[in-house]
């Protein structure tokens, strides 16, 4: 026996899988399922590709960016012995703390020149980050030797300046003087000039922001060229293994108060990841519109089904079914088509994602090694799958709700007459 609550669902399920008097209804119902499945599959694959690029970019940034970065809220620099910075670096969970000072300067090598960001760091910078993993060349990570200061260039900056992996002549760095008036008759006097030497390596983050603009050098050189003795632009930190990252970050922010920002790796690259999230959201919106169009097939299928089952409606009413229950039968029919299409689409989408992850079927380009990865990266996030299923279900429900109620009411009114 079927109770009154499950009665509409039971009849809807029978209608969906039973043979109709008009074969076109079966065909349109099948097309509706396929349309919803294809739109759902596109959502799964597209969002997973965006996730793949997001994770790929994040993996590159971790080789250069610290776990946590403390920067002043007001101004570019702050005293290195600021009590709040001292309290933060003395937390027991802090494993490595590096003082940094960075600003813009002009780099000149032979007849090439470029605006650069000179980043001065402590000697323990290689312990703070994974920079050793992205170094290229025959040398090793070094910032200074006696009075000689080294400059590690980004690979694209080295290409722009024409230095190669090892520049034989010193790289000249110019920075505007902080004090005094600019003398137009002697422009060179308005700049602080110094030289950097090659340690025999370049770094390759594979991000233009760094590779095209940054020079890593010693903190002492940066303080001298920018006339910022005893100052830092950031305090970069790495925590001990096993530390509660979020709890330590909250404690640091409490100590920093309103004077400093405490940012993790993703917050340090907030602009990059925000753009990627916006792109992913826009793709989700566009594919949802395609899903809405696919759901119009469900309306066609249900409209024809309602007409085909007009005699059954009379029988159901004679057996005691209420108008509300009859309407719910066709609503459940639309929901079943949406649900089946969603399940099939998600299953096929996950299969395609697995094939791409395993075999790299869709390549980024014809030339091997021209890109960071040879095939489109894919990463499936469970929360995306849940959102996709809910989206399909909600869109399917809203698409059929009014048409079903309208056609059912007209059919019932005609039969009542």
Characterization of this structure:
With 417 residues, the protein is an alpha+beta fold. It contains 13 helices and 15 strands. Strands 1, 3, 4, 5, 8, 9, 10, 11, 12, 14 and 15 form an eleven-stranded mixed sheet that branches. Strands 2-13 form a two-stranded antiparallel ribbon. Strands 6-7 form a two-stranded antiparallel sheet. The chain is elongated, with a radius of gyration of 32 Å.
Task: Compile the SSE list and pairings.
Elements: H1 7-17, H2 23-61, E1 68-72, E2 78-79, H3 83-89, E3 94-109, E4 112-121, H4 125-128, E5 135-137, E6 144-145, E7 148-149, E8 152-154, H5 155-161, E9 171-176, E10 191-196, E11 201-203, H6 208-211, E12 214-218, H7 219-225, E13 231-232, E14 234-239, H8 245-256, E15 260-264, H9 265-268, H10 270-308, H11 310-318, H12 323-359, H13 382-416
Parallel strand pairs: 4-12, 8-11
Antiparallel strand pairs: 1-14, 1-15, 2-13, 3-4, 3-9, 3-14, 5-11, 6-7, 8-12, 9-10
What class would the helix/strand composition place it in?
alpha+beta
Which percent band covers the strand fraction?
Answer: 15-25%
Q: What proportion of the residues is helical, as a percent range?
A: 40-55%
Quaternary organisation of the protein chains: single chain
Order of helices and strands: HHEEHEEHEEEEHEEEHEHEEHEHHHHH
End-to-end distance: 32 Å
Mean pLDDT: 86
What would you report as the Rg, rounded to the nearest angstrom? 32 Å
Largest sheet: 11 strands, mixed
The stretches of 5 or more residues where confidence is low (pLDDT under 50) are: none
**How many extended strands?**
15
Judging from the principal axes of the Cα atoms, what is the shape?
elongated
Number of helices: 13
């Amino acid at each position: 026996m079927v109770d009154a609550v499950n009665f509409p669902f039971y009849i809807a399920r029978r209608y969906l899988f039973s043979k109709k008097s008009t074969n076109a209804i079966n065909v349109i119902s099948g097309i509706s399922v396929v349309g919803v499945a294809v739109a759902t599959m596109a959502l799964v694959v597209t969002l997973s590709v965006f996730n793949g690029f997001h994770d790929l970019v994040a993996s590159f940034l971790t080789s250069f960016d610290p776990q946590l970065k403390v920067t002043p809220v007001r101004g570019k620099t702050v005293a290195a012995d600021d009590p709040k910075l001292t309290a933060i670096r003395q937390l027991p969970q802090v494993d490595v703390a590096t003082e940094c000072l960075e600003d813009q300067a002009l780099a000149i090598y032979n007849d090439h020149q470029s605006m650069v960001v000179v980043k001065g760091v402590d000697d323990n910078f290689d312990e703070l980050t994974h920079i050793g993993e992205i170094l290229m060349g025959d040398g090793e990570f070094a910032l200074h030797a006696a009075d000689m200061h080294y400059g590690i260039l980004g690979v694209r900056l080295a290409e722009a300046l024409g230095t190669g992996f090892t520049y034989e002549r010193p790289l000249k760095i110019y920075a505007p003087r902080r004090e005094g008036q600019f003398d137009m008759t002697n422009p060179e006097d308005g700049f602080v000039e110094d030289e950097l030497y090659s340690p025999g390596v370049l770094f390759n983050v594979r991000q233009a922001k760094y590779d095209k603009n940054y020079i890593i050098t010693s903190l002492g050189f940066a303080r001298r060229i920018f006339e910022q003795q005893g100052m830092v632009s950031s305090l970069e930190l790495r925590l001990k293994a096993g530390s509660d990252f979020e709890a330590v970050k909250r404690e640091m922010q409490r100590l920093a108060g309103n004077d400093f920002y405490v940012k993790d790796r993703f917050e340090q690259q907030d602009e990059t990841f925000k753009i990627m999230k916006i792109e992913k959201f826009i793709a989700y919106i566009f594919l949802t519109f395609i899903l809405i169009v696919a759901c119009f097939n469900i309306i066609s299928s249900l409209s024809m089904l309602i007409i085909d089952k007009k005699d059954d409606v009379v029988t159901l009413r004679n057996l005691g079914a209420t108008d509300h229950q009859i309407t719910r039968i066709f609503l459940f029919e639309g929901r079943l088509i949406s649900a089946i299409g969603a399940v099939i689409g998600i299953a096929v989408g996950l299969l395609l994602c697995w094939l791409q992850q395993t075999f790299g079927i869709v390549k980024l380009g014809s030339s091997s090694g021209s890109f960071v990865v040879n095939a489109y990266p894919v990463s499936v996030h469970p929360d995306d799958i849940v959102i996709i299923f809910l989206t399909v279900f909600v869109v399917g429900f809203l698409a059929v709700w009014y048409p079903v109620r309208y056609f059912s009411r007209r059919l019932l009114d005609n039969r009542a007459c």
